[in-house]
Design a protein that fits this description.
The complex is a heterodimer.
Chain A lengths: L15 H6 L13 E8 L5 E7 L1 H5 L3 E6 L6 E2 L6 E2 L5 E2 L5 E7 L2 H10 L1 E6 L6 H4 L28 E9 L2 H7 L2 E9 L11 E6 L5 E5 L4 H12 L6 E5 L19 H6 L4 E5 L2 H7 L2 E2 L1 E10 L5 E13 L5 H10 L9 E10 L5 E2 L6 H19 L3 H8 L18 H11 L13 E11 L9 E7 L5 E5 L8 H13 L6 E3 L18 H28 L6 E3 L3 E4 L6 E3 H5 L15 E6 L21 E11 L6 E11 L6 H20 L5 E2 L2 E2 L19 E5 L21 H13 L10 H11 L1
Parallel strand pairs in A: 1-14, 12-13, 15-19, 17-18, 22-23, 29-32
Antiparallel strand pairs in A: 1-7, 2-6, 2-8, 3-7, 4-5, 9-18, 10-16, 11-12, 11-14, 16-17, 20-28, 21-22, 21-27, 24-25, 25-26, 28-29, 30-31
Helix pairs in contact in A: 10-11, 10-17, 13-14, 16-17
Chain B lengths: L3 E8 L2 E8 L4 H8 L18 E4 L2 E4 L12 E3 L12 H8 L9 H14 L5 H8 L9 H13 L1
Parallel strand pairs in B: 1-5
Antiparallel strand pairs in B: 1-2, 3-4, 3-5
Helix pairs in contact in B: 2-5
The chains are: A alpha+beta, B alpha+beta.
């Protein structure tokens, strides 16, 4: 693959000009037509029966066009466990749950009318801690759990709050603990966090008089929105069109379907009008997916030379009020529950538990940050108990080519060792620095791994149209939320077709015109969409050769193509330009040879399998991406304030299609990880979210972000396009444990939860004394 | 009906006279009345910086300024930076350094950075951090933005 020309180069982003000039169109920037504006009436109790909703006053408010309640619109929606309606029906299950929606001629009128709606509730006892919710006598939040439609890879317990119980039984756990010289058992906690993309959730819908629904949405996955709406509304797919714009950050919160279906009945009442909803910052924080909190118990058996022989992991996840998507995070964390380590005997129980907190759902890492926090902290502890170098314990147990995951899947294209060593070298591992002014220095390292969490048949497709002048349009269903899809996919098409990147046009998807892509989630697009595009390009290339062979009367095997012309390798003067071939090619006699060239490619995984319901054994991973984080900190023992002195991150991209964009992704994920390590925690008071804005919920900004060093490791992914695999989510995973390991190294205290706020650090030190 | 007031101002070098609704924010006026949708809304309470524009050369969160305050002032938005299709050098530096991902905070970020460069032709990392700390980028392009600002200052 050394002769690659475009793949592996840092061409500028395809969306660069639009994004630096303000021309990039996000959904709220579109002029759409005659509009109505929607606002939600939200629940003021965390768990309660709806006794009455009085809308009369609101209906009379000037400008109000329609009001919708759950009784009028009880349709259900969900991706994996269909437990949710667009508007609460009979019962509310979290604070801020939408109970009614108003559409009016202005946002102001809609907001005023919302205040005029009166809702009466009968409050019910709530569940705010999943460890309480899992108990047999806990108040039941979903009485109908046993009747919900569900993908049969999830295992709820009707009559309880357990929405999914995923099990791993690998090897022989008793034997594993027997072989151990030591056993370590600890509890860990990871709180909820929020994605807070700077662009909030937004959607608009239009119903045409001929019964077609058009949806504009910030969704990461237009095809899944279409699929779920078709099911929920009982509409055929050709009657639903979902249009994407640039997305102002996703990080998982815009996965699946969220608010798109909320306004459909109002649109049906006003055909031709566009009904739009824009979540404000508070609604975005409180009403959309949060990262599920995790309470876990980890028990590890290990030998005196540092080899882990057994791992028993119990995870109790706070699924929140609805777990339609969250059940799959619980599953993914379960089947990956040894992290980046090869452990022969494993027993894992991962529970998704309903509570009356905000809805849990996908966030960058998809369970891996939370689950691997425990693993990486425990390995550090093991090293300390054995007085061994924590890096050595990681290397000794780390996955290698041929290792098996918790689910027994064999990993192939792995160089975890290199990922660890590059960051260790960078931060000067093994050399203890002394701090200034009584401050204490420490170094920490953590590893990471993640595979995309997707159904085993999650598919992808691509179409490439060659224009008459030899330029091309690449059409895919992947979305652009900043990750660089447009650029990377263009580069793959360019490499395969020999057409320069600047002669390739690519747009964000529109389900009426772009082909199917399951979802832009899980760091899967470079691999799945990349493979489809490569295949589409090869298909188009095949057509170019076939047409040229006919035109030039030269056998295909004697032809070569340089991106501009096809020529005979025996006589280079026998040639045809790409324009001649692409523009409804004809012979010199005038007889036509071929019409326009349209390449098509599709992809579905063939290496994934179902998992055994009792043991969790099988192949859930499309590919596994490894990496590591290294951190040096300086801690002020007087205040507990942590300063990050060095931050190094590595990721095994297989092949970086665009090294500059890969590094930017690596930096971005590392910063998000750092932000959660130090600052981020959604706080609830009996289900009421307390920090619902950027003042109360702090995320990292310029002055919190140190210089970073990043390393792209390239161990080719055998089946990935040009050896590539996805890396978008992964860099976040190792940061929190690496920071905690470094602080622990500096202070000699342990941390079982993050964020490591000054208060938490100071208290830990105080307790030690 | 809500009160309206006639305001006169310049926007991106052009003189304008418009009606503004009293009580409406400058952000809404820029987006809905002037149709300059490059300026983004992220929080509407002055926390994220996505709506940063320059008012008489000073960076403001346009969500915290009333439209009527524009009267008699000079407004510069992201759309006013490139001239005849030629990018401003700061915009070019953002492209060269890939100093954004989703691009939603980018217009506000570029306006805030431009204001910094007008005050300080050669800012160091600390000065950039301080000047831009009110502009949030969840994609985390902070390091690349610092590099872009410094690079643009050099030229």
């Amino acid at each position: 693959m050394s002769d690659l020309k475009i793949v592996g180069t840092s061409v500028p982003r395809k969306d660069a000009m639009e994004k630096v000039t303000g021309a990039a169109e996000f959904i709220e920037d579109r002029y759409m037509g005659p509009m109505l504006y929607a606002k939600m009436k939200k629940s003021t109790v965390v768990h309660g029966r709806i006794l009455s909703i009085k809308t009369e006053k609101a209906e009379k408010h000037p400008g109000v066009k329609a009001i919708l309640t759950g009784k009028d619109y009880p349709n259900m929606i969900g991706l994996y466990l269909i437990d949710r309606t667009f508007l609460a029906v009979d019962k509310v299950r979290f604070w801020g749950e939408p109970v009614a929606v108003v559409a009016a001629t202005s946002e102001k009128a809609a907001a005023e009318a919302v205040d005029l709606i009166e809702v009466e509730y009968e409050e019910l006892p709530g569940v705010f801690d999943p460890r309480e919710g899992i108990k047999p006598d806990a108040p039941v939040i979903h009485e109908n759990l046993g009747n919900y439609e569900i993908v049969p890879i999830f295992y709820p317990t009707p009559g309880t709050n357990i929405a999914n119980h995923f099990k791993i039984r690998k090897g022989d756990i008793e034997k594993g603990f027997d072989q151990a010289d030591h056993v370590l058992e600890k509890e860990y906690y990871v709180p909820q966090m929020q994605h807070v993309p700077i662009e909030t959730h937004k959607a608009a819908v239009q119903w045409s008089p001929d019964g077609k629904l058009t949806v504009w949405s910030t969704a990461q996955s237009p095809n899944v929105v279409r699929q779920l709406l078709a099911k929920s509304l009982d509409l055929p797919m050709h009657k639903i069109r979902v249009i994407s714009s640039y997305i102002g950050g996703g990080f998982g919160c815009k996965a699946g379907a969220s608010i798109e279906g909320l306004l459909v009945p109002i649109a049906q009442k006003y055909p031709g009008h566009i009904i739009r909803i824009v979540f404000d910052r508070e609604e975005d924080m409180q009403g959309t997916f949060t990262r599920q909190a995790l309470f876990s118990k980890l028990r590890t058996g290990y030998t005196k030379d540092g080899r882990i022989t057994a791992l028993q992991y119990e995870m109790i996840w706070d699924g929140g009020a609805y777990t339609e998507y969250g059940v799959n995070i619980v599953r993914a964390a379960g089947y990956s529950s040894t992290g980046a380590y090869d452990i022969p005997n494993v027993k894992t129980d991962s529970y998704c538990v309903y509570t009356n907190n905000s809805i849990g759902g996908p966030v960058r890492g998809f369970g891996m940050c939370e689950m691997q926090w425990g693993i990486e902290r425990q390995i550090e502890e093991i090293a300390k108990q054995l007085e061994m170098d924590p890096l050595e314990v990681r290397l000794k147990n780390g996955m290698k080519r041929g290792s098996t995951t918790a689910s027994g899947q064999v990993v192939q294209d792995v160089d975890y060792e290199k990922c660890l060593k590059v960051v260790a070298d960078k931060i000067g591992w093994g050399k203890k620095e002394s701090g200034k002014d009584g401050k204490l220095r420490g170094k920490g390292i953590a590893g990471l791994v993640k595979c995309p969490a997707q159904p085993s048949n999650a598919a992808s497709s691509a179409i490439i149209r060659i224009n008459e002048d030899g330029t091309a349009h690449v059409m895919v269903g992947a979305t652009e939320m900043g990750q660089g899809m447009l650029t990377v996919i263009s580069q793959i098409a360019s490499e395969a077709l020999h057409i320069p990147v600047d002669k390739i046009d690519i747009k964000v998807p529109d389900t009426d015109f772009t082909p199917y892509e399951w979802q832009s989630v899980g760091s899967r697009i470079t691999y799945t969409c990349g493979t489809s595009v490569k295949r589409a390009a090869e298909d188009a290339l095949g057509q170019i050769y076939r047409i040229a062979a006919d035109l030039l009367e030269v056998p295909q095997e004697d032809l070569s193509y340089d991106g501009k012309k096809v020529y005979s390798t025996r006589d280079p003067d026998i040639k045809a330009t790409i324009r001649e071939i692409a523009d409804s090619c004809k012979k010199c006699t005038g007889e036509g040879i071929a019409g326009p060239i349209i390449g098509r490619g599709s992809f579905v995984p063939t290496n994934m399998t179902n998992l055994d319901p009792e043991t969790g054994q099988g192949n859930p991973g499309l590919f596994y991406c490894f990496g590591a984080t290294g951190v040096e900190v300086e801690v002020d023992p007087e205040t507990g304030v942590i300063e990050v002195i060095q931050l190094a991150s590595s990721i095994d991209a297989g092949k970086a299609i665009n090294p500059q964009l890969a590094k930017v992704q690596l930096h971005g994920g590392t910063i998000m990880g750092l932000s959660t390590a130090l600052y981020e925690e959604v706080r609830f008071d009996k289900g009421i979210m307390l920090n619902r804005n950027f003042t109360d919920y702090k995320i990292a900004t310029f002055d919190n972000v140190p210089h970073m060093d990043s390393f792209i490791v390239e161990t080719p992914e055998t089946k990935g396009p040009y050896g590539a695999r996805g890396i978008g989510e992964q860099p976040m995973i190792g940061v929190a444990p690496a920071v905690a390991n470094a602080v622990s190294d500096a202070l000699g205290v342990e941390f079982n939860s993050f964020p490591l706020t000054p208060e938490k650090v100071w208290r830990a030190l105080k307790d030690k004394k | 009906m809500r009160d309206k007031k006639i305001i006169k101002f310049t926007v991106n070098g052009n003189s304008e006279e418009r009606e503004a609704v009293v009580g409406e924010t400058l952000l809404k006026f820029i987006r809905d009345e002037l149709n300059l949708t490059g300026t983004k809304s992220g929080c509407e309470i002055g926390e994220c910086g996505a709506c940063t524009v320059l008012l008489d050369g000073k960076p403001v969160n346009s969500c915290l300024v009333l439209a009527v305050e524009l009267d008699g002032k000079d407004l510069l938005t992201i759309e006013g930076l490139s001239k005849n299709g030629e990018l401003d050098r700061l915009q070019q530096a953002f492209i060269d350094h890939a100093a954004f991902q989703c691009g939603y905070c980018t217009p506000g970020m570029i306006m805030a950075a431009r204001s910094l460069l007008e005050r300080n032709a050669n800012p160091n990392d600390d000065e950039i951090n301080e000047a831009l700390s009110g502009n949030l980028c969840r994609c985390g392009a902070y390091q690349e933005i610092r590099d872009a600002v410094k690079d643009s200052a050099k030229k």
